[in-house]
Amino acid sequence: MKNSKLEPIARVVHEALSAWRVANGQDPYQSWDLAPDWMRQSTIESVEHVLKNPDGPASTQHRQWMAQKKRDGWVFGPTRDDKRKIHPLLVPYSKLPRQERLKDALLIAIVKSLSGKR
Question: For residue 69, how far is the Cα from the chain centroid?
C-alpha cells in the first residue's frame, strides 16, 4: 500500500467502524496495523471519495464502495467471505439494513470532522 496523507484519517475511520460493528453485534475488524492491505486501501479510497464529494449523501458513499469492490473482483453472496471476495452488502443503498446506512453516514461524518470539511 502506498504511503498516503489520508492514512491518519483512514486509520480513525477504520477503528471507528470496527467499534460500530461490535456495538451492532458483529465481529470487529482487525486493527489497522494488522488489517490486510486491500482493506486499508479500501478505507483510504473511501476517505478520498468523501473529501472530493463532501456534500454527497451516504448513498453516494455506498455506490463508491460498491464500485470499488466490483473493480477488485468482489461479488454478491449471502455470507461475507473475504478470501473468496463475496459480500452480502453489494446491493443498492435502498436495500441496505438501516445500521449499514448509518455506518456510511458515520464514515462521512468522521472524515468531514477530521478534515475540517464540515
Answer: 10
Count of CA atoms in the C-beta half-sphere (13 A) of 101: 10
Which residue, 54, 65, 46, is CA-closest to 7?
46
Under a CB-based contact definition with an 8 Å cutoff, are residues 104 and 111 in contact? no
Residue reference for cell 438501516: 98
For residue range 68-87, list pLDDT tens digits in order.
Answer: 999 999 999 999 999 999 99
Please tell me the distance from the alpha carbon of residue 117 to that of residue 115, in angstroms, as a whole number.
5
Locate all alpha helices (DSSP H) within 1-118, ordered by sequence: 7-23, 37-52, 58-71, 98-115
